[in-house]
Amino acid sequence: MTSHVLSDTGTLTGRSLKHILRSPDTIITTAVTPIALMLLFVYVLGGAIHTGSDQSYIDYMLPGILLITIASGIAYTSYRLFLDLQGGIFERFQSMPIARSSVLWAHVLTSLVANIVSVAIVVGVAFAMGFRTGASVGAWLAVAGILILFTLSLTWLAVIAGLSAKTVDGASAFSYPLIFLPFISSAFVPTSSMPGPVAWFAEYQPVTSIVNTIRALFNGQPVGSSIWIALAWMVGILVVAYGFAIAIYKKKIS
To answer: Which residues belong to any copy of the ABC transmembrane type-2 domain (predicted)?
Structure first.
């Protein structure tokens, strides 16, 4: 049974990836916004922003930019899922001897691959702009693991949106608050520089702990309790989103 699910998921993932290869502009578009933000903040606004540390601003802001890259990319997952649902592909799949869960997992894995490529492009541009890190191989692997977990948790939220949306615009609009959330966190300025209520929200919302953890790993510093808070947020979102997505999917195909 397990091998059947894996085989079906692999086949359907290959189908989704072929669509992306035929239209690589989706990955390029995903990378354009965070790259534009890096250029704006580093070369226009960076000189006026004080982070309270002696590291370059590109080093400080990159963790937040990576999260924005992923938040931008998952909108396409919701969009592609909505089009499949409206196009009747799900109904055709139901008439075939394939595992039903593989349809959703194919979209999730496609999102993961596409976002990894987008993040790699953004990191490459960041290096060209002067980003430097003394992170060890282990620290890089930890960063990669955090970004993968972050992608999976947001992608399952995208699945909920794709299954529930009534219009194409509605399918992708849910990602806008997620893209905006890093701006009210420690991604671009220390939370201590914000007004009281905003600083409280910024300090305790999930993006701040994730950003602080990635920044510490890049800087070769102890991550402290931030990593456990970040993992708790991401795993919690993943479990809840997965549960809701599966429940909505079963209702759709019943």
So the answer is: 25-252
